[in-house]
């Protein structure tokens, strides 16, 4: 007989954990989004953060702890959430992402059943179209890039005492042998293409390469979609709260001078 694990529907059975660094420009907007979907995250501020992220989170009354690692990547911080989070399950959402309201509702649902200690969630990479619509890379793009099952699936919901932790780059911070798939309506949204310029994203790939050979260049098609002709942006985000957050993210990038046209980036050698 097939065995099932149950995640109790009570909100205290899982915690949304948001690792963050140097996100002062948009972290208050992100926190307002969480409040709008009735979620109180735990923000884990990287000790290397050099802006006002911590102060802003304190000002808005957010739950906040400090975390540190010798390695310059979020994967090395995941193990530190263990024993500092008092719920059996953790949903990790990075500071340039947000969960859909449907994802939170699905996790809280008492009808939920699964067979594994890790849950895979589809992540949508967002951008604004020339017409100003919020769109995402459709599944055909991920099929071309050979991602899992035609989507970018992230192993972000997990039972913290049941996984083996690792610090390897481009992992969820633990080993994954098998995972239950969240339904397609239960999504993560990613704002990397919106809040960071092409130059910043290129620097991110170079930083990955410095930590592990070819770990950035091999993933360049994730971070530099402007350079890829095969991306399909046929999907649109209709959620008003996510649209509002995306506009705030865009304004944050523009305010810091991080959003420039692709032509400008190429002319200055980005």
List keywords for this structure.
270 residues; alpha/beta
* Average predicted local confidence, pLDDT: 82
Main sheet record: 11 strands, mixed
The number of E-state strands comes to: 11
How many distinct helices? 10
Would you state the CATH class of the domain at 11-121 and 152-184? Answer: Alpha Beta
Shape: globular
Output the CATH topology of the domain at 11-121 and 152-184. Answer: Spore Coat Polysaccharide Biosynthesis Protein SpsA, Chain A
Q: Given the helix and strand composition, which structural class is it?
A: alpha/beta
The helix-strand sequence is EHEHEHEEHEEHEEEHHHEHH
Q: Mind telling me the C-alpha Rg?
A: 18 Å
CATH superfamily of the domain at 11-121 and 152-184: Spore Coat Polysaccharide Biosynthesis Protein SpsA, Chain A
Work out the strand percent.
15-25%
Describe the structure.
The chain is of the alpha/beta class and 270 residues long. The protein has a domain of 144 residues: Spore Coat Polysaccharide Biosynthesis Protein SpsA, Chain A (Alpha-Beta Complex), CATH 3.90.550. The protein is built from 10 helices and 11 strands. Strands 1, 2, 3, 4, 5, 6, 7, 8, 9, 10 and 11 form an 11-stranded mixed β-sheet that branches. Strand 1, helix 1 and strand 2 form a beta-alpha-beta unit. The longest helix has 16 residues. It is globular and about 45 Å long.
